[in-house]
Structures are given as C-alpha cells and as structure tokens.
Design goal:
The protein is mainly β. The chain is about 0% helix and about 50% strand. It has no helices and 17 strands. Strand 7 and strand 8 form a beta hairpin.
Length: about 260
C-alpha cells in the first residue's frame, strides 16, 4: 500500500479592509551586490520638526487579481487593493492531516533571512485532521513586518515547505513595542528602507476559509507607508510607487 503523507492547507484567508494572509509561490529576488535604491523619507511633527524613533512599516497593494476565472482589469500603474475582514486579528489557520501518529514540527521562517520566526508545533500528535493558528506574531509576541514567510512541516520522515504572504493593512491603535518595523527614524526624523527583502513581484493564490482557490494576485510596487510613535496618532502616506531604479521618497507628518 502506498504510504500517505500529511496534507496541508491554509484557511482563514478570505476577503475586507485590513489583512492579507495569502499562500503563494514564486518571488522576484535581487542580488545582494546589486541592490536598487532604497525608500527614503522624513517624519515631522505638526510644527515641521523631525521626530526621532518613529517606527516605519509598509503595507502592500496587490494587482493582477483573477477571481473565479474572470480577469479583473487593472489599468497600467494603478494600484488595486484586496480587502480582508478583520484588520485587528491577523490570524490564519494551517490545516494538515496525518495518516498515523508521529512527531510533528511545524514552524515559520522569514523568506528573506531564513530566520525562524516562531515554532507552532513540536511534539507527538495522533493521526487525523489537525489545525493550528498563527496570529502573525513571532516567538517574542511581536507582530511581524509585512512580507513573505515560509511554513515548514516535518512529520516523521516527511517534510515540506509552503510560502505565505502576510500583509496587515491597518496599524491604527498599535503600540510600537507590540510589532516589528521596517525602519526607525534617526535623530532628525529621517529614515531609509532598503528594497532588498521587500516582496515586490511575489505571486500567490487567494483562498477562501475552506482553503479553496478563488483567485491569484501579484504584489505591486505601490505601498502604504505607516509612521507609528506612542506620543502621536498613527500617520501614513498611501500609493507610493517604489521604482526599481530610483526607489521612492516620502514625507509623513503627525497631526499632533
């Protein structure tokens, strides 16, 4: 009898303003010795003074969406946002089945650095249909930055890896110590975000809550840049185009 290995699917990935946890495959990469220009900018207060130690985070627009076999026309250089239901609950469910009991390890790594983000399962599990949720937090309890991650499973002699795109669209209400950041401003309020590990061009699949495919997407070069500081209300600038040859510049101002 042919041996049956675990099967994995992602669910909890459906569709309204806020979050995108999307399985996918493939990604454009840039050689480390030929990095494109970074995203640079400045964060200022209501009086125009630079603000130091501001956390900068990126959210990504998606394009080339295909839903239920019907192309969604996207004019050139026009950002398209796919919205998701709960911007304050960035959770996906990883479902898998085991033909028999075995020792299972399931963990998530950063696709760019390959560092372990969090270990979700590490122990013996009985055979059957199983699931585990990931709330987008690392082993220290901080929300990870938006980007591409990898889900790894090792069950007995079986092992495999799947890619996951994480894209929280709303950071209003978060304290800076509760999440990781793409960059921090210096003493004059200036910041710089390199393009090397950003997920531009990543392509993946959109699934419903049952793990069924309902479309595909590609991460565009339009971003929303968020500025977070515990002394100010969150500020942002949207639809910033990050050029592969010239990067981007942005000025973000806190209202108070």
């Amino acid at each position: 009898m042919e041996r049956q290995w675990p099967k994995i699917s992602l669910s909890g990935i459906a569709l309204l303003l806020g979050l995108a946890l999307l399985g996918g495959c493939g990604k454009k990469t840039t050689e480390p010795n030929n990095l494109p220009p970074p995203i640079v900018g400045k964060v200022i207060d209501a009086s125009g003074n630079g603000v130091k130690n501001v956390s900068l985070l990126l959210s990504y627009h998606l394009d080339s969406l295909l839903v239920e076999g019907t192309p969604n026309p996207v004019p050139p250089d026009t950002p398209t946002v796919v919205n998701f239901p709960n911007p304050f609950n960035p959770t996906t469910t990883i479902r898998y089945s085991l033909p028999e009991g075995c020792w299972v390890k399931l963990w998530i790594t950063n696709d760019c650095t390959h560092e372990i983000v969090v270990v979700l399962v590490d122990g013996y599990q009985e055979g059957g249909s199983l699931s585990i949720g990931w709330d987008g937090r690392d082993s220290e309890g901080k929300l990870v930055i938006n980007g591409v991650y990898e889900i790894h499973i090792q069950a007995g002699k079986f092992s495999s890896t799947w890619k996951l795109f994480y894209n929280l669209m709303n950071f209003i209400g978060y304290q800076t110590e509760a999440l990781e950041h793409n960059a921090l401003t210096d003493s004059k309020g200036n910041f710089e975000i390199g393009q090397g590990c950003l997920p531009f061009g990543f392509e993946g699949e959109i699934t419903d809550y049952e793990g069924n495919s309902i479309g595909t997407y590609r991460v565009s070069r339009y971003v929303k840049i968020w500025a977070l500081h515990n002394s100010y209300h969150a500020a942002s600038v949207d639809s910033v185009f990050v050029d592969p040859d010239s990067g981007a510049t942005a000025l973000i101002q806190f209202s108070n």
